[in-house]
Amino acid sequence: MQVNLRESWWIRDVEIPTRLVLAPMAGVSVQAFRRQGRRFGAGLVCSEMVSCAGLEHHNERTLGYLRVGGDEHPLAIQVFGSDPALMAEAARMVEAAGADLVDVNFGCPVRKVTKTGAGATLLDDPDRACRIVEAMAEAVAIPVTVKLRRGCDDGSRTCLDVGPRLVAAGAASLTLHPRSAKQMYTGEADHSLTAELVDLVDVPVVASGDITSRARAQAVLATTGAAGVMVGRGAQGNPWALREIVDGEGSQPSREEVAAELILFIRETVRELGERRASGFLKKFYGWYLGRGRFPRPFKQELVQLESPDDVVTRLFAAAPRAAEIVERLEAELPDPEDEILLDQMPISIYGGG
Ligand SMILES: Cc1cc2nc3c(=O)[nH]c(=O)nc-3n(C[C@H](O)[C@H](O)[C@H](O)COP(=O)(O)O)c2cc1C
Predict the structure, then answer these.
(1) What is the pTM of this model?
(2) Active site residue: 108, 130, 152, 159, which one?
(3) What confidence tens digit (pLDDT) does each residue in 54-99 have?
């Protein structure tokens, strides 16, 4: 069955223009990643998970995650934590920052997060999970959405009990990554559970996990009845995969296009994170962009060794001189940085963050 991924759908009164959602990924989903995702066909983009404790303490780095670009809408900002009152306050800050949706993380399997009672552990404490969603939904007018795993242990079906309860508590949409927390990223996402969840709730469900091709996206949409599919790892250094999934345009990018996208990504990330933080953050992206046979392996290794992001940009221009025209065009389309943050809503200290 052919499914049109260019169809729009709604989370309450928020229109999502395509059925493709870009996954929240810690250490990946910076603004440049989300913007690029929108350009390549994602109908909804999401920040990485943001600590409600960090927001509460006005931690400068945490507040930086609340930057919203004019061209990112619709955008979800994801928060994590275990205290309903703090999560409600975090939701208020997310709303004030201009996000269209506030998403709650009930899926993170990483010990640093679960040991604080947040992330996937909340699937084993559904009363608390519901209190969190309820408090957030009461605190804000924007929809509260939830991203969850199937449960904590292998084979768990907890999501089918907890999901409908979260909807009753006020969740306007659910995203299911049907692996257990214990599995981390091993094995396969079992989307038969996604289909079961769709049957149990009357809000849109998004299917996350192992969507890497148009055929897979269409099959998952058709067999589960999900409103959308989410793409995570498949989009790392590969925005062209998003275009292929949405439109079926499967042509491989030229070297110039790859270099241009990477150069823009580097420049925007330096602006967002500052040069020092960006230079370590960006290294993994060099491999992601330049792999897949697009550039010779030694070239990738050379870039990782370079001192600064500026040096990497210079080297990329040298390797693909015609990338300059593409970069110029892409940069001309960026919104004015002045329009990016609701200035009166944010503590003054975050402007220093680059
Ligand atoms: C590096 C990395 C970081 C992630 N960070 C988050 C996160 O902050 N919040 C979240 O809900 N899921 C996070 N995830 C899970 C993804 O959103 C997604 O559900 C998962 O990777 C499965 O989709 P995929 O097979 O398309 O990658 C992360 C995944 C990866 C690989």
Answers:
(1) 0.95
(2) 108
(3) 999 999 999 999 999 889 999 999 999 999 999 999 999 999 999 9
Interval between CA 130 and ligand 1 midpoint (Å) = 22
Task: Tell me which of 79, 177, 220 to substitute to probe ligand 1's pocket, judged by most ligand atoms within 8 Å of the beta carbon.
Answer: 177
Kindly indicate the confidence band of residue 349, based on its pLDDT and cuts at 50, 70 and 90.
Answer: very low
Indicate which atom in ligand 1 lies nearest the CA of residue 147: 11
Burial 317-339 (b: 16+ CB within 10 A, else e): bebbeebeebbeebeeebeeeee
For position 338, what pLDDT does the model report? 60
85 and 93 Cβ atoms separated by less than 8 Å: no
Query: Confidence band (pLDDT; 50, 70, 90) for 250?
Result: confident
337 pLDDT band, cuts 50/70/90, is low
d(CA 90, CA 231): 26
Atom nearest to 210 CA in ligand 1 = 25
Q: Ligand 1: which of 21, 22, 25, 46 to mutate, most ligand atoms within 8 Å of CB?
A: 25
